[in-house]
Amino acid sequence: MRRPFLVLWLSTLLFYLGFQLLLPVMPLYATALGAREAHVGFIIGIFALAAMVPRPLAGDLADRIGRRPLVLLGTAIFGLAPLGYAVVATVPGLLLLRLFHGTGMGFGPTAATVVATDLTAPERRGRAMGVYSLASAVALALGPYLGGVLVPRLSFTSIFLVATAIEVGAFLLAWTLPETRPPTHRPAAGADTAASSSSRAGVLARFGRRWFSPAAVYPSGLVMALYVSYGGLSALLPLFVARRHLGNPGLFFTVYALVSLAVRSPAGRLSDRLGRRAVIAPALAVASASMLVLGVAGSQAMLLGAAVLYGIGFGAAQPALLAMTADRVTPVERGRAMGTLYTAWEFGISGGAIVLGLCATRFGYMVTWWIAATIAALGAVAALAPGVRGRG
Fold this sequence. Notes:
The chain is mainly α. It has 16 helices and no strands.
C-alpha cells in the first residue's frame, strides 16, 4: 500500500460513493418525473451506453497521453452531473444528463484501473486487484443504503448536492496522483501490412486493433455475462422491492457489498495461485444462483439471501477478471485492454438495464431475474472453455 496506491484507492472510493448514493434515488426520481418501469430501465441503461462509447478512446488515450488526465476528467464530470439533476424537471432532460454523466464513468475508472495495475507486480496482481476493487465495494456498501435513508428525509435536490460534494473530494485526491504511463511507448497496436491497408477489410482491422485489444475479448465476454444482472439490479431493484414490500432496497446493495468486501481479497489471492478461470467459473455460477433466489423472493430474508449469494459471486469474479485482462497484455497496451474490458462491462450493464426493464414490463419480475440467471450461467460455462489462450 504505497502512497500513490492508497491515494488512488481513496479517490476511487469517493468517486463511486457519490455515484452509488444515487443508485436507489434515480429510479424514484425518474418515476416522480413520470417515467414507467421500461422508461426507468432505459434511463439507467443509457448511462451505461454513454459510458461504453468513450471506453475504447479512454484506453487508447491512457496509453498515448497518460492515465492521470483521464482520471481527472472523469471525476470532474461526476461532480458536475448531479448539479444538473438538481435543476432538471423533465424525463428528456434527465436522459440528456444521464448521457453526460455516463461519459465520466467511461473515462475515469478506465484510466484509474490502469494506474492500479501499473503500481502492482504481476505475481501479486490478483491480490492487488482484490484490494483495489474494495474501494468500489465499500462505496456500494455505504452509498445505496445512505441514499435510501436520505430519500424520505431530504429533497432530491439536496441529495444531488451531497453527491457533488463527495465528488469534489475525489477530484482533490486524484489531483495529487502521479503519472504512471511507461516512458517508452509503442504508439499503435500493430501495423497492418501494405496489402491489407489497401483494402476495406484492412482499414477496419487497423481501426479495430487501435481501439480494442484482441487479447481482452475473452475476459470481456465473461464480464458482460456478469454485468447483465448488475444492470437489471441497478434499474429495477428499487421498484421490485417496493412492489413486493421488502423494505429499503439499499439494504440489498449493502449486504451484497459487505459480502463482496469479505471475498474480494481472498478470491484475488486464490486466482494468483490456481489461475483466473478457476475462480471466475464458480463465481459466475453463484451469481446465477442469486438471481434464481431473487426471482422467488417473497420476504426480506430471501432478498438478503440473494444479496449474499450475489456478493460472493460478484466479489470473487471481478478482481480475477481484471487480473486476467492485465495478464494478457504488455504494460504499454494495458490502456486498450482495460478499455475493451470496460466497454463490455458497460454494454452488459446497459443491455441488462434496458432489456430486463422491458422484460419486467412484459413478463414480470420472476421471469426477468431468471433470464439474468441464465446469462450468468452461460458465462460460467464459457469460463470453463478449454484451449483459451492466456493464464488461468
